[in-house]
Write a structure and sequence with these properties.
Largest sheet: 2 strands, parallel
Order of helices and strands: HEHHEHH
Number of helices: 5
Helix content: 40-55%
Distance between the termini: 40 Å
Shape: globular
Strand order of the largest sheet: 1-2
Oligomer: single chain
Strand content: 5-15%
Length: 105
């Protein structure tokens, strides 16, 4: 989640510098624990080991620059790039990503 959030903040900063105000960006994640930590500051007592980068991400959520939403692992289209999938799921994710399946002659 952290690399995606850092990239999103950089891109929004660039676009705002160019004069394009950006709305809140939603980042989908399958890690419910990390999503809960970004939303509820009461977890700080039992998560003292978390570094400055995480606190920056929580600040971005508080400022409504980023929001995180749970997405089950089976529903993440990017899995096509990282996992071997059965053909029906591969076909669905390929379509969802706008890639299309090309038949070989």
């Amino acid at each position: 989640m952290l690399p995606a959030a850092k990239e999103e903040m950089w891109l929004c900063s660039l676009l705002e510098t160019l004069g394009h105000k950006q709305p809140t960006t939603t980042i989908h994640s399958n890690n419910m624990g990390s999503i809960a930590l970004t939303k509820d500051p009461t977890f700080h007592a039992c998560s003292k080991h978390i570094n400055v980068q995480f606190h920056y991400m929580q600040e971005c959520v508080d400022n409504k620059d980023i929001s995180f939403k749970y997405l089950p692992t089976a529903s993440i289209p990017a899995n096509i790039m990282t996992k071997a999938l059965p053909f029906p799921k591969q076909e669905n994710f390929t379509t969802a990503l706008g890639l299309g399946i090309h038949a070989t002659p």
